[in-house]
């Protein structure tokens, strides 16, 4: 059986979630009530029998390392293979590599030593539930050099403008990679490649002054490589801005969207934190809301997402909002279209109202 090793490349992902990425990289941003964005990528890999995963991190990775630990939540704390967090801690005076090719070059031992035949590279901004074994099967069936994953979106949003788009012929071969804002073939920042070909392309890119492995090693070589497009047809969300984070988070309140992402057959795992069940006091009114463990609710909550340990005081009203871990909303406060980062405190009687297209964001540990 052909084996796959995984690389989660965070090097080129910009931290564009404003206040939510002041103290953490985008991959570590909480999502969906109890998860982090990177949980979906790691879970997809482990559910697809990828048992060796490296994370290329360059900046603000303390929170990420604290969350991933040794990979126990994903069964990656093992003697062979497992989880490797690889920050930019190298000192090779002969190294001429630049950009994310520095990570590929300085961690080439991970690629060389893995027993896998193929390397799967993914970012963290595309939230989905995908089986990479299906990608491998199609990759082998068409005898591709590289297989890239894309989604055909029904409606284009501002976040899709930043994503690469694919031009595909009738045989699902990629003939172009561009930023055409009108294209609906959104590249999901995931590709599969053989270990040997990746090694050769890394050396070629560095020798020719390349900085970005995908752009310089794959996109620029489309005429020479057989790059196949695999269409992912499941639930998909691209999160690269506060607005896209808010919109795709609140979509989880729709049963179809939620069930498409969280499957019993392919569960999404996260760091376990043992907390008691949430407590709904007699004065509470909660409708269409995701509520994690450890919450104490006395007020009114509608169409919102509450992470672990949130306290909602009596008479408080929360609508269309995302409240992260251990936030405290005191009595008679009003929140609407608001995102509270972790450990925030909203004082009694305070009113915060944002707009659906521009939510009001409160940074981590702030009291108002």
TrEMBL record:
Designated name of the protein: Glucose-1-phosphate adenylyltransferase subunit GlgD
Which positions fall inside the Glucose-1-phosphate adenylyltransferase/Bifunctional protein GlmU-like C-terminal hexapeptide domain?
284-351
Report keywords, A-Z: Glycogen biosynthesis, Nucleotidyltransferase, Transferase
The yes or no answer to whether the keyword Transferase is present is: yes
Q: Which GO terms describe its molecular function?
A: glucose-1-phosphate adenylyltransferase activity
Q: What is its EC number?
A: 2.7.7.27
Family assignment from sequence similarity: Belongs to the bacterial/plant glucose-1-phosphate adenylyltransferase family.
Q: Which InterPro entries match?
A: ADP-Glc_PPase, GlgDAde_trans, GlmU/GlgC-like_hexapep, NTP_transferase_dom, Nucleotide-diphossugar_trans, Trimer_LpxA-like_sf
- Record-level GO BP terms: glycogen biosynthetic process
Lineage, top-rank taxon, reads Bacteria
Which species is this UniProt entry from? Answer: Halobacillus locisalis
């Amino acid at each position: 059986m052909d084996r796959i090793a995984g690389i989660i490349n965070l090097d080129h992902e910009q931290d564009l979630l404003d206040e939510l990425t002041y103290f953490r990289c985008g991959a570590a941003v909480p999502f969906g009530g109890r998860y982090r964005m990177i949980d979906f990528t790691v879970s997809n890999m482990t559910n697809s029998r990828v048992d060796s995963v490296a994370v290329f991190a360059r900046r603000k990775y303390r929170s990420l390392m604290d969350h991933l630990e040794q990979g126990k939540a994903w069964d990656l704390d093992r003697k062979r293979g497992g989880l490797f967090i690889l920050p930019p801690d190298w000192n090779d005076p002969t190294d001429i590599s630049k950009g994310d090719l520095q990570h590929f070059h300085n961690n080439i031992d991970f690629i060389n030593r893995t027993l896998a035949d193929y390397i799967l590279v993914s970012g963290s901004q595309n939230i989905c539930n995908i089986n990479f074994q299906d990608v491998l099967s199609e990759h082998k069936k068409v005898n591709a050099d590289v297989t890239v994953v894309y989604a055909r979106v029904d409606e284009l949003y501002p976040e899709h403008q930043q994503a690469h788009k694919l031009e595909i012929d009738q045989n699902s071969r990629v003939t172009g990679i561009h930023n055409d804002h009108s294209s609906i073939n959104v590249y999901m920042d995931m590709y599969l490649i053989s270990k040997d070909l990746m090694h050769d392309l890394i050396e070629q890119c560095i020798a020719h002054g390349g900085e970005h492995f995908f752009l310089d090693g794959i996109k620029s070589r489309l005429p020479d490589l057989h790059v196949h497009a695999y269409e992912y047809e499941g639930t998909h969300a691209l999160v690269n801005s506060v607005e896209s984070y808010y919109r795709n988070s609140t979509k989880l309140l729709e049963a179809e969207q939620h069930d498409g992402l969280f499957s019993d057959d392919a569960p999404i795992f996260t760091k376990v934190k043992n907390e008691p069940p949430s407590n709904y006091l007699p004065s509470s009114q909660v409708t269409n809301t995701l509520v994690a463990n450890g919450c104490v609710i006395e007020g009114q909550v509608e169409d919102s997402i509450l992470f672990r340990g949130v306290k909602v005081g009596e008479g408080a009203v929360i609508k269309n909002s995302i409240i992260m871990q251990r936030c405290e909303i005191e009595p008679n406060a009003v929140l609407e279209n608001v995102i509270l980062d972790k450990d925030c405190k909203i004082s009694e009687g305070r009113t915060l109202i944002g707009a659906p297209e521009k939510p009001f964001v409160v940074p981590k540990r702030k009291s108002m």
